[in-house]
Design brief:
23% strand, 2 domains, 8 strands, alpha/beta, Glutaredoxin, eight-stranded mixed beta sheet, single chain
Length: 214
């Protein structure tokens, strides 16, 4: 099954025209008991084939536990977006399909070009953080508002190595969704106990981070 037709491939090629640094997609999968692992693998292969700036590395989650731990991967399917070998803490859990396909494209562009849409005040604050921040943005592929939240969180992770940001496809991880009481998406969970419903401006997320770090 192919995900990208000729029209989409051409559009992605245009979006990748300004890629600068090499991007590595590190994908963790396994053959059994993994919903959408094969589909995610296929999608990533197709994306990697669009540009010579993108390399896909595939690992078995069980056989490569040490590597999974290195990248903080604790469930599958998982995709880690690297600039070469540099890890910014930007991850996708579940298949980045539907509206989240755009989030994946933007994450690749972010680590390759370093271009962010965050405001200077936001960046200055994020750089000052010296405590760990873990952001989980719960989404579904049919949610048109979710990519905004995912992209803001990923851009924040890019600024400071203390910040980690995960896209989590809510329906693929029902136990996790139940744990964090995900009744609607997007729902951003910060450090496990501070929540933000809906797609909101970056300033709102900054305030939520401050709340989580108190």
């Amino acid at each position: 099954m192919k995900f990208l037709n000729k029209k989409i491939i051409k559009e992605v090629q245009e979006m990748f025209a300004d890629l600068d640094k090499k991007v590595t997609l590190v994908y963790f999968t396994q053959e059994v008991e993994c919903v959408y692992c094969r589909e995610t693998h296929t999608l990533l292969e197709e994306i990697a084939s669009v540009s010579d700036k993108i390399e896909l590395k595939v690992y078995d989650f069980m056989e490569n536990k040490d590597l999974a731990e290195k990248y903080g991967v604790d469930k599958i399917p998982a995709t880690v977006i690297l600039e070469g070998e540099k890890d910014y803490g930007i991850k996708f859990y579940g298949i980045p399909s539907g509206y989240e396909f755009g989030s994946l494209i933007e994450a690749i562009k972010l680590v390759s070009t370093g271009k962010s849409l965050l405001q200077k005040d936001t960046i200055d604050y994020l750089k000052s953080i010296d405590k760990d921040v873990h952001m989980q943005v719960f989404v579904t592929p049919t949610c048109p508002y979710c990519p905004q939240s995912v992209m803001i969180a990923h851009q924040m992770a890019y600024v400071n190595p203390k910040i980690k940001s995960d896209m989590v496809e809510a329906t693929e991880f029902p136990a996790l969704s139940n744990k964090y009481n995900v009744m609607g998406v997007p729902r951003t969970v910060i450090n496990g106990d501070v929540y933000q419903e809906g797609a909101v401006p970056e300033q709102v997320i900054v305030e939520k981070i401050k709340e989580a770090l108190k």
